[in-house]
Design a protein that fits this description.
The protein contains seven helices and 54 strands. By secondary structure, the protein is mainly beta. A hairpin with a 5-residue loop joins strand 34 and strand 35. Helix content is 6%, strand content 53%. It has a 22-stranded antiparallel barrel. Strands 2-7-8-5-6 form a five-stranded mixed sheet. It has a four-stranded antiparallel sheet with strand order 17-18-21-22, with no helix packed on it. The longest helix is centred in the first third of the chain and has 15 residues.
């Protein structure tokens, strides 16, 4: 077991805390804080107060009789902004807040959209929707998320939740904690996002019922054959108090049914190389390496369409049987189903054995040329008709009891269950061009020529000698069908107890301490089915002749209109015609697969699906102690906290160890998804345990009545993504017999650790606020994926064949060792630092119609010395930290008057690094983007309100590239989304 000792930061924070605790005191214990007063139709921006503490619901008689705090009355979106500022102002950490009115007045499409309005927070768009958030230049893997204070597992297979699973209509508030405190659950190097559902006893009304309905339209759907243009959003919620306000009930339901639309070009990675053989360089610059050039695998042009359906459910029962006890049970469930298609064609350039004419280079990487198929190359164009289904489930249940034992002692107990499941089925239908599809024995057309020239972040120039055949049923034949299911499940049970003891001394207001235990199990299950051949016509699994009733000729439109037409194929009609008696079992040849039992009479070896399936186990015990500070230093009121959190982690995963079928060593019969039994392996569980100590301090200095300075320092940690702890191992053999493998996951991976420091200045005035902050994080290390060349696979326990059989010639080809890729904790760490500026102005004091005008804006600059090496673009180049944009800007201009409210919001981020759209585990560069949304509403009367929204007003695409902008990655256009609907409240 690894045991880590308190570091220098730990000792420094303890010393700082002790110096604060024992400073001469000028503030008495009974100097209470005047807190914000709730109003039903208005909100106040409070005057700063001395010794600000957390806002509490229980106030003393002295507080109740105190002189009312000066306030400015505002409504609507302005009210929600001031609410958020008050929450930020009186919080005890560096944080950003979103109030309930902010989320509910004009609901955002997802929580990610709402959070990106906060300083230092940006989003990564997937399918046009903001799904993952980045905080202070760090990707979603470093962001920890909770719901009602409870850690949430994810359908993504990582630790970052997918925020589009959480309907904004069912979330009452949100906070982003940029500095931790000891009482917060560990896990967020970048920050912690806390989502809250409603507390039914806290509402002002005895009963409240709200219905929200909207229709939606995507203006690019008409360009995609088979895509849905219209969708809808519907939600309702009820909150009520009974039995003299001792029993509260809240229920909510939100349904989203929206089209998923995109038109895209995808440039594939440069994963092959070719000797130059005297090829001329058509560019002006010299070739750096005269021996070879890097070649892209190819490119794709696709229409994407489908429907996303999300059903969200929320419920809560809150009971206060006596004055000092509140018991709350709450639940949240989300069901997110997506059925989508991807149609178009894929150009496979053919690798090192293709014949290339007129090459164009960027450095050593070929970005253009004419590729002609040879007898040894795989140059071809595939007509693709993919069918994807994704069924996601998220559940969160909890029971909480809050007991005020005495005037000073409070005890809080919490029990929770969080679970998630994702069932993803990737169905692929390949078609290829025949010389004559009507022939008795069709022949694969090997007369293939592909010309292309990349144009950076614009669409490329392309040409195909077979272009006319792509839409001709007399030439195109279905040649392969495959299904690749991937099911992952994640479940966590957690138990927590927290104590708060009020001291009311001159320097410590209270002590908090507690413990938490969590037990998490993650599993993934890979399987596969394949029939046919995507690179030729199989004799044993012959291709399908298409008919007119199975196909539709699809033309490209708009900027893509110069691409050649292609055949969209009705998947069900094609499969029913191809397999009238049901889909048969596939028959393919792997070679010498010793130790594999073939009970069904076929020789396919899909052992990789077994090796990539397994479970991860994680048990965490944590405890903390924290002192809440309420004192004076040099005449300045100081509040905050100092504490330390101890975390003990035990992680392990199942792994398959190759024992060459030796029964004495425990060899087991392990069956894959289609019944082939592998006798070579024994299942083991391996892992590691470690203990961490995480000190933290947060100090808030009230330097004037209207301004304060915050300082925070802490040691923080983020565990590796849960799926990267899985013990998956796989190997494959290429057509020329080379073995390559990977174990990109590793159950021995350790967390990311960082020492971080925050300093901010906050200035509050009657109608807004100005905030300036600087931060610095020093991260110890990162997970790196390294490649070991000439790796001896057989000697290291891999089940690989001695030879493969050429499908055409029948020749046995001996296998050779290639590259093994695996994950380790050896990537060099470094600093991340930046500044954040935020300004909010509400013109509530202006006369009449102008009083509803206002704006808020934020700017952040982040830089890091952390870089990684990538070769996806061929030439080796450096790459920034995933999630980091140097400059991030968000701004909202809003106006309201006599029931009418409107706002326009814009968010900008410059270039950043993230996973390639639609290409898993390819981390590439993304171009800068500006996303603009518009929203408006009109309150007809006290109950009825109308609303109109436009998301992605300028139809901003997502654009990515490999290394530099000359090597095109993905160019994806989503379209605008229009919403029109109403809200009814009673």
């Amino acid at each position: 077991m690894l045991k880590s000792k308190p570091n220098v930061l730990t000792l420094a924070l303890v010393a700082a805390g002790l110096s604060v605790m024992f400073m001469p005191q000028a503030v008495k214990a009974n100097d209470k804080v005047e807190q914000p007063t709730d109003t039903k139709q208005s909100i106040e921006l409070n005057k700063p107060v001395t010794n600000a503490t957390d806002i509490t619901a229980n106030q003393t008689t002295d507080e109740a009789d105190a002189e009312p705090i000066e306030r400015i009355l505002v409504k609507g979106y302005s009210r929600s902004l001031i609410d958020s500022l008050n929450s930020k102002r009186f919080g005890d950490t560096v944080s950003e807040q979103l109030s309930a009115d902010d989320l509910g007045a004009l609901p955002d499409v997802s929580m990610a959209d709402a959070l990106t309005r906060l300083p230092g927070i940006s989003a990564v768009r997937t399918g046009g929707q903001a799904a993952e958030i980045n905080i202070r230049g760090m990707s979603g893997g470093f962001v920890f998320s909770t719901l009602n204070g409870r850690e949430q597992v994810s359908t993504s297979g990582s630790r970052s939740i997918e925020f589009d699973q959480y309907p904004s209509e069912l979330i009452s508030s949100a906070a982003v904690y940029k500095s931790p405190k000891a009482s917060l659950i560990e896990g967020g190097v970048a920050g912690t996002v806390e989502l809250q559902t409603v507390s039914p006893l806290s509402i002002d009304k005895d009963h409240s019922f709200v219905v929200n309905a909207r229709g939606m339209h995507n203006d690019r759907a008409s360009e995609v054959f088979g895509a849905e243009e219209y969708g809808s959003r519907l939600s309702f919620s009820y909150q009520g108090k009974f039995l003299e306000d001792t029993l509260g009930i809240a229920v909510g339901y939100a349904r989203l049914e929206q089209p998923s639309v995109a038109t895209q070009f995808i440039g594939l990675a440069y994963n092959d190389s070719k000797e130059l053989d005297g090829l001329a360089n058509d560019t002006n610059g010299p070739i750096d390496n005269p021996d070879f050039e890097y070649i892209s695998e190819g490119f794709e042009m696709q229409h994407l369409g489908g429907v996303e359906t999300r059903n969200g459910y929320m419920g809560a029962i809150e009971w206060a049987p006596v004055d000092n006890l509140v018991v709350k049970a709450d639940s949240f469930m989300s069901r997110f189903d997506s059925e989508s298609f991807a149609r178009g064609f894929r150009a496979k350039l053919g690798g090192r054995n293709a014949s290339v004419a007129n090459p164009v280079f960027d450095g050593n990487s070929m970005i253009g040329g004419t590729f002609n198929r040879t007898s040894k190359s795989y140059t071809r164009v595939e007509i693709v008709n993919d069918d994807n289904q994704d069924f996601d489930e998220v559940n969160s249940f909890g029971v909480n009891a809050d007991w005020q034992v005495t005037d000073r002692l409070n005890v809080n107990l919490d029990v929770s269950l969080s679970s998630a499941k994702s069932d993803f089925r990737n169905g692929l239908l390949w078609s290829n061009v025949a010389v004559d599809a009507n022939a008795e024995t069709p022949i694969f057309d090997e007369n293939v020529s592909i010309s292309y020239l990349l144009n950076g972040l614009d669409l490329p120039d392309v040409g195909f000698n077979q272009a006319d055949a792509f839409s001709d049923i007399n030439r195109v034949m279905v040649s392969k069908y495959g299904i690749y299911p991937f099911v992952n499940e994640d479940e966590m049970k957690a138990y927590r107890i927290d104590f708060t003891y009020d001291l009311n001394t001159d320097f410590i207001s209270s002590i908090e301490f507690g413990a938490r235990f969590s037990d998490r199990t993650y599993s993934n299950d890979r399987s596969v089915f394949e029939y046919g051949n995507d690179g030729a016509f199989s004799k044993s699994e012959p291709p399908l002749k298409l008919t007119e009733d199975m196909t539709t000729v699809v033309d490209w439109q708009g900027d893509f209109s110069y691409f050649p037409s292609y055949l969209a194929i009705d998947l069900d009609a094609a499969l029913n015609a191809w397999f009238p008696n049901g889909i048969p079992q596939p028959v393919q040849t792997w070679g010498n697969a010793d130790g594999v039992v073939d009970p069904q009479g076929y020789t396919t070896n899909y052992s990789w699906s077994v090796l990539q399936s397994g479970e991860v186990y994680e048990e965490v015990i944590s405890a903390y102690v924290m002192a809440n500070i309420n004192t004076e230093i040099g005449g300045l009121p100081v509040t905050g906290n100092i504490g330390v959190r101890m975390v003990d982690t035990d992680q392990s995963a199942t792994m398959l160890q190759n024992v060459d079928g030796d029964i004495n060593l425990g060899a087991q019969n392990i069956a894959d998804s289609i019944g082939i039994i592998n006798q070579n392996y024994v299942s083991t569980v391996q892992g590691v345990s470690y203990t961490d100590y995480l000190p933290s301090i947060n100090l808030n200095f009230a330097i004037t009545d209207d301004s304060q300075i915050r300082f925070a320092a802490a040691k923080v940690m983020s565990r590796p993504p849960i799926n990267r702890l899985a013990g998956d191992i796989s190997a494959s053999v290429s057509d020329d017999g080379e073995i390559n493998g990977s174990s990109t996951n590793n159950p021995f991976l350790m967390p990311f650790y960082a020492d971080q420091y925050d300093l901010s200045y906050e200035r509050y005035f009657d109608e807004g606020a100005f905030v300036a902050a600087v931060f610095y994080k020093n991260i110890d290390s990162f997970i790196d994926t390294i490649a070991i060349e000439n790796f001896d696979f057989k000697a290291n326990g891999f089940n690989v064949p001695d030879y493969i059989v050429d499908e055409v010639s029948g020749e046995q080809i001996a296998t050779t060792n290639g590259t093994y890729t695996t994950a380790v904790n050896n990537a060099e760490g470094g600093y991340i630092r930046g500044i954040e500026l935020a300004y909010t102005q509400v013109f509530a004091s202006l006369p009449d119609a102008w009083s509803g005008l206002g704006f808020n804006a934020s700017y952040s600059y982040t830089e890091s010395e952390v870089q990684s090496i990538t070769s996806l673009g061929g030439d080796t180049s450096t790459q920034d930290l995933p999630g980091l944009s140097n400059n991030v800007v968000s701004a909202t201009l809003f106006y309201s008057y006599e029931g009418f409210e409107t706002r326009v919001s814009a968010r900008y981020r410059d270039e950043f690094v993230s996973e390639q759209v639609a290409i898993n585990e390819q981390v590439v560069n993304f171009d800068a983007e500006t996303v603009i949304d518009y929203q408006a509403s009109y309150q007809v009367n006290d109950a009825l309100g109308l609303l109109f929204q436009v998301n992605n007003l300028t139809d901003e695409p997502t654009k990515s590239f490999f290394g530099n902008q000359n090597k095109t990655g993905t160019l994806q256009y989503f379209g605008r989304q229009f919403y029109l609907g109403f809200t009814y409240a009673m």
